[in-house]
Design goal:
Shape: globular
Oligomer: single chain
Low-confidence stretches: none
CATH topology of the domain at 30-82 and 93-100 and 118-215 and 234-259: Thymidylate Synthase, Chain A
CATH class of the domain at 30-82 and 93-100 and 118-215 and 234-259: Alpha Beta
Radius of gyration: 19 Å
CATH superfamily of the domain at 30-82 and 93-100 and 118-215 and 234-259: Thymidylate synthase/dCMP hydroxymethylase domain
Number of helices: 6
Length: 273
Protein backbone atom coordinates (compact mmCIF):
# COMPACT_ATOMS: atom_id res chain seq x y z
CA UNK A 1 0.00 0.00 0.00
CA UNK A 2 2.30 2.67 -1.30
CA UNK A 3 -0.17 5.52 -0.65
CA UNK A 4 -0.11 4.82 3.09
CA UNK A 5 3.65 4.26 3.26
CA UNK A 6 4.31 7.50 1.39
CA UNK A 7 2.16 9.30 3.96
CA UNK A 8 4.25 7.87 6.79
CA UNK A 9 7.50 8.88 5.06
CA UNK A 10 6.24 12.40 4.36
CA UNK A 11 5.39 12.93 8.01
CA UNK A 12 8.82 11.70 9.09
CA UNK A 13 10.57 13.91 6.54
CA UNK A 14 8.46 17.07 6.70
CA UNK A 15 6.47 16.91 9.93
CA UNK A 16 6.98 19.20 12.91
CA UNK A 17 7.00 18.42 16.60
CA UNK A 18 3.68 19.14 18.27
CA UNK A 19 2.26 18.53 21.73
CA UNK A 20 -1.09 16.78 22.11
CA UNK A 21 -3.93 16.05 24.51
CA UNK A 22 -2.39 12.77 25.70
CA UNK A 23 0.97 14.32 26.60
CA UNK A 24 2.82 11.76 24.43
CA UNK A 25 4.04 14.18 21.78
CA UNK A 26 3.85 13.81 18.01
CA UNK A 27 5.41 14.63 14.68
CA UNK A 28 2.56 16.20 12.77
CA UNK A 29 1.48 17.62 9.40
CA UNK A 30 -1.74 19.49 8.77
CA UNK A 31 -3.74 18.89 5.60
CA UNK A 32 -2.96 15.70 3.64
CA UNK A 33 -4.86 13.39 1.29
CA UNK A 34 -4.55 9.87 -0.12
CA UNK A 35 -6.76 7.99 -2.62
CA UNK A 36 -7.45 4.24 -2.91
CA UNK A 37 -9.11 2.67 -5.96
CA UNK A 38 -11.27 -0.14 -4.59
CA UNK A 39 -11.27 -1.79 -8.00
CA UNK A 40 -7.58 -2.59 -7.46
CA UNK A 41 -8.33 -4.75 -4.43
CA UNK A 42 -9.25 -4.20 -0.80
CA UNK A 43 -6.85 -1.67 0.84
CA UNK A 44 -5.91 -3.64 3.94
CA UNK A 45 -2.36 -2.94 5.10
CA UNK A 46 0.12 -5.76 4.41
CA UNK A 47 3.32 -4.38 6.00
CA UNK A 48 1.78 -5.45 9.30
CA UNK A 49 -1.24 -7.59 10.09
CA UNK A 50 -4.48 -5.69 10.74
CA UNK A 51 -7.15 -7.59 12.67
CA UNK A 52 -9.86 -7.32 10.06
CA UNK A 53 -12.54 -9.03 12.15
CA UNK A 54 -12.27 -6.08 14.57
CA UNK A 55 -12.77 -3.65 11.67
CA UNK A 56 -16.00 -5.41 10.70
CA UNK A 57 -17.24 -5.71 14.30
CA UNK A 58 -16.72 -2.01 14.97
CA UNK A 59 -18.36 -0.95 11.70
CA UNK A 60 -21.42 -3.14 12.31
CA UNK A 61 -21.57 -1.69 15.84
CA UNK A 62 -21.54 1.84 14.38
CA UNK A 63 -24.28 0.94 11.91
CA UNK A 64 -26.51 -0.29 14.74
CA UNK A 65 -26.29 3.16 16.29
CA UNK A 66 -24.74 1.65 19.42
CA UNK A 67 -23.09 3.68 22.17
CA UNK A 68 -22.19 0.93 24.66
CA UNK A 69 -19.24 -1.46 24.27
CA UNK A 70 -21.27 -4.24 25.89
CA UNK A 71 -23.53 -4.26 22.84
CA UNK A 72 -21.60 -7.02 21.04
CA UNK A 73 -18.30 -5.14 20.76
CA UNK A 74 -15.95 -5.52 23.73
CA UNK A 75 -16.07 -9.33 23.64
CA UNK A 76 -14.66 -9.20 20.10
CA UNK A 77 -12.27 -6.23 20.28
CA UNK A 78 -11.06 -3.91 23.11
CA UNK A 79 -10.72 -0.95 20.72
CA UNK A 80 -13.12 1.27 22.70
CA UNK A 81 -12.60 -0.13 26.20
CA UNK A 82 -10.17 2.60 27.34
CA UNK A 83 -12.75 5.35 26.84
CA UNK A 84 -15.93 3.67 28.12
CA UNK A 85 -17.25 4.35 31.63
CA UNK A 86 -17.83 1.65 34.24
CA UNK A 87 -21.12 0.72 32.56
CA UNK A 88 -19.53 0.51 29.12
CA UNK A 89 -21.13 3.74 27.91
CA UNK A 90 -19.41 6.17 25.53
CA UNK A 91 -22.09 8.80 25.05
CA UNK A 92 -23.63 9.80 21.71
CA UNK A 93 -20.63 8.82 19.56
CA UNK A 94 -20.30 7.84 15.89
CA UNK A 95 -23.10 5.33 15.41
CA UNK A 96 -25.61 7.35 17.39
CA UNK A 97 -25.02 10.39 15.19
CA UNK A 98 -25.07 8.30 12.00
CA UNK A 99 -28.42 6.69 12.78
CA UNK A 100 -30.13 8.85 15.45
CA UNK A 101 -29.14 12.51 15.04
CA UNK A 102 -31.51 14.40 17.33
CA UNK A 103 -34.02 16.68 15.66
CA UNK A 104 -36.66 18.74 17.45
CA UNK A 105 -39.85 19.65 15.60
CA UNK A 106 -42.60 21.97 16.74
CA UNK A 107 -45.96 20.24 17.23
CA UNK A 108 -48.67 22.82 16.62
CA UNK A 109 -51.40 20.65 18.13
CA UNK A 110 -49.60 20.10 21.42
CA UNK A 111 -47.78 23.45 21.46
CA UNK A 112 -44.39 21.95 22.17
CA UNK A 113 -41.22 20.64 20.60
CA UNK A 114 -41.02 16.89 20.05
CA UNK A 115 -37.87 14.86 19.61
CA UNK A 116 -37.35 13.01 16.34
CA UNK A 117 -34.27 11.35 14.89
CA UNK A 118 -32.53 11.60 11.53
CA UNK A 119 -31.09 8.35 10.14
CA UNK A 120 -28.23 9.86 8.14
CA UNK A 121 -27.06 6.52 6.72
CA UNK A 122 -30.46 5.57 5.31
CA UNK A 123 -30.99 9.13 4.14
CA UNK A 124 -27.67 8.98 2.23
CA UNK A 125 -28.59 5.65 0.63
CA UNK A 126 -31.99 7.02 -0.42
CA UNK A 127 -30.29 10.02 -2.02
CA UNK A 128 -27.76 7.79 -3.79
CA UNK A 129 -30.64 5.81 -5.30
CA UNK A 130 -33.04 8.66 -6.05
CA UNK A 131 -30.90 11.77 -6.49
CA UNK A 132 -27.42 10.47 -7.36
CA UNK A 133 -26.17 13.81 -8.75
CA UNK A 134 -26.75 15.54 -5.42
CA UNK A 135 -23.74 17.19 -3.81
CA UNK A 136 -25.38 16.84 -0.40
CA UNK A 137 -24.93 13.10 0.21
CA UNK A 138 -23.13 13.69 3.49
CA UNK A 139 -23.01 11.95 6.86
CA UNK A 140 -21.63 13.86 9.84
CA UNK A 141 -20.69 12.59 13.29
CA UNK A 142 -19.68 16.06 14.53
CA UNK A 143 -22.75 17.18 16.44
CA UNK A 144 -21.56 20.34 18.19
CA UNK A 145 -24.23 20.17 20.90
CA UNK A 146 -23.34 16.55 21.75
CA UNK A 147 -19.53 16.77 21.67
CA UNK A 148 -19.24 17.55 25.43
CA UNK A 149 -21.21 14.36 26.19
CA UNK A 150 -18.95 12.10 24.10
CA UNK A 151 -16.19 10.06 25.74
CA UNK A 152 -14.05 10.86 22.71
CA UNK A 153 -15.16 13.38 20.07
CA UNK A 154 -15.13 11.80 16.58
CA UNK A 155 -11.80 11.75 14.77
CA UNK A 156 -13.24 10.57 11.46
CA UNK A 157 -16.07 13.03 11.52
CA UNK A 158 -17.63 13.58 8.08
CA UNK A 159 -17.93 11.64 4.84
CA UNK A 160 -19.49 12.36 1.46
CA UNK A 161 -20.63 10.01 -1.30
CA UNK A 162 -20.30 10.73 -5.02
CA UNK A 163 -22.09 8.78 -7.77
CA UNK A 164 -20.63 8.75 -11.28
CA UNK A 165 -20.85 6.31 -14.22
CA UNK A 166 -22.34 3.51 -12.16
CA UNK A 167 -19.78 3.68 -9.36
CA UNK A 168 -19.78 5.02 -5.82
CA UNK A 169 -16.88 7.08 -4.43
CA UNK A 170 -16.51 8.17 -0.83
CA UNK A 171 -14.40 10.92 0.72
CA UNK A 172 -13.70 11.00 4.45
CA UNK A 173 -12.50 14.00 6.44
CA UNK A 174 -10.55 12.97 9.53
CA UNK A 175 -9.63 15.80 11.91
CA UNK A 176 -7.07 13.76 13.89
CA UNK A 177 -5.22 10.68 12.66
CA UNK A 178 -2.82 8.36 14.49
CA UNK A 179 -0.93 7.13 11.43
CA UNK A 180 0.58 3.96 12.86
CA UNK A 181 -2.31 2.50 14.88
CA UNK A 182 -5.46 4.21 13.69
CA UNK A 183 -5.15 5.04 10.00
CA UNK A 184 -4.80 1.45 8.67
CA UNK A 185 -7.97 0.62 10.58
CA UNK A 186 -9.76 3.73 9.27
CA UNK A 187 -8.82 2.98 5.65
CA UNK A 188 -10.19 -0.56 5.91
CA UNK A 189 -13.36 0.53 7.71
CA UNK A 190 -14.37 3.24 5.23
CA UNK A 191 -13.38 1.12 2.24
CA UNK A 192 -15.71 -1.57 3.56
CA UNK A 193 -18.49 0.94 4.30
CA UNK A 194 -18.19 2.27 0.73
CA UNK A 195 -18.50 -1.27 -0.60
CA UNK A 196 -21.52 -2.00 1.60
CA UNK A 197 -23.36 1.16 0.55
CA UNK A 198 -22.48 0.53 -3.11
CA UNK A 199 -23.76 -3.05 -2.75
CA UNK A 200 -27.20 -2.07 -1.41
CA UNK A 201 -27.41 0.80 -3.93
CA UNK A 202 -26.65 -1.47 -6.94
CA UNK A 203 -23.43 0.38 -7.79
CA UNK A 204 -19.79 -0.59 -8.18
CA UNK A 205 -17.36 0.63 -5.50
CA UNK A 206 -14.93 3.23 -6.85
CA UNK A 207 -12.47 5.48 -4.99
CA UNK A 208 -12.03 5.96 -1.28
CA UNK A 209 -10.49 9.39 -0.70
CA UNK A 210 -8.93 9.93 2.73
CA UNK A 211 -8.49 13.59 3.70
CA UNK A 212 -6.70 14.54 6.92
CA UNK A 213 -6.48 17.49 9.27
CA UNK A 214 -3.81 16.81 11.93
CA UNK A 215 -2.11 13.61 10.75
CA UNK A 216 0.64 12.48 13.10
CA UNK A 217 3.07 9.87 14.34
CA UNK A 218 3.31 9.54 18.12
CA UNK A 219 6.83 9.80 19.49
CA UNK A 220 6.55 6.36 21.11
CA UNK A 221 5.76 4.76 17.73
CA UNK A 222 9.01 5.59 15.93
CA UNK A 223 10.59 2.16 16.35
CA UNK A 224 7.43 0.46 15.07
CA UNK A 225 7.20 2.82 12.08
CA UNK A 226 10.80 2.06 11.13
CA UNK A 227 10.12 -1.69 11.23
CA UNK A 228 7.10 -1.25 9.01
CA UNK A 229 8.89 0.94 6.46
CA UNK A 230 11.62 -1.70 6.11
CA UNK A 231 9.06 -4.29 4.98
CA UNK A 232 7.92 -4.86 1.41
CA UNK A 233 4.19 -4.41 0.72
CA UNK A 234 2.33 -7.45 -0.58
CA UNK A 235 -0.59 -7.80 -2.96
CA UNK A 236 -3.98 -6.44 -1.83
CA UNK A 237 -6.56 -9.02 -0.79
CA UNK A 238 -10.06 -9.06 -2.30
CA UNK A 239 -13.40 -8.64 -0.56
CA UNK A 240 -16.58 -10.55 -1.42
CA UNK A 241 -19.96 -9.49 -0.03
CA UNK A 242 -22.93 -11.85 0.26
CA UNK A 243 -25.17 -11.01 -2.74
CA UNK A 244 -28.28 -12.00 -0.77
CA UNK A 245 -28.00 -8.92 1.48
CA UNK A 246 -30.36 -6.21 0.21
CA UNK A 247 -30.29 -3.45 2.86
CA UNK A 248 -27.73 -1.83 5.12
CA UNK A 249 -29.26 -3.18 8.35
CA UNK A 250 -29.14 -6.83 7.28
CA UNK A 251 -25.37 -7.29 7.25
CA UNK A 252 -23.66 -9.67 9.68
CA UNK A 253 -20.00 -10.62 10.00
CA UNK A 254 -20.69 -13.82 8.04
CA UNK A 255 -21.57 -11.75 4.94
CA UNK A 256 -17.95 -10.73 4.29
CA UNK A 257 -15.18 -12.90 2.88
CA UNK A 258 -11.64 -11.58 2.72
CA UNK A 259 -9.53 -13.57 0.27
CA UNK A 260 -5.78 -13.58 -0.30
CA UNK A 261 -4.73 -11.57 2.75
CA UNK A 262 -1.05 -12.39 3.32
CA UNK A 263 0.35 -9.72 5.65
CA UNK A 264 3.65 -9.37 7.45
CA UNK A 265 3.50 -10.14 11.20
CA UNK A 266 1.71 -7.70 13.54
CA UNK A 267 3.63 -4.90 15.24
CA UNK A 268 2.48 -3.94 18.73
CA UNK A 269 2.44 -0.33 19.93
CA UNK A 270 0.89 1.53 22.89
CA UNK A 271 -2.36 3.45 22.40
CA UNK A 272 -2.29 7.12 23.44
CA UNK A 273 -5.44 7.62 25.53
Amino acid sequence: MQQYLSLVREILENGEEKSDRTGTGTISIFGMQRKYDLRDGFPLLTTKKVLFSAVIRELLWFLKGSTNINDNLTEHTPIWDAWANEKGELGPVYGYQWRNWDQFKWNEEHGQFERHHVDQIQQAIDMIKNNPDSRRIIVSAWNVADVPRMALPPCHLLFQFYVINGRLDCQLYQRSADVFLGVPFNIASYALLTMMVAHVSHLKPGDFVHTFGDVHIYKNHHEQVDIQLARKPRKFPTMTINPAVKDIDSFSIEDFELKGYDPNPPIKAPVAV
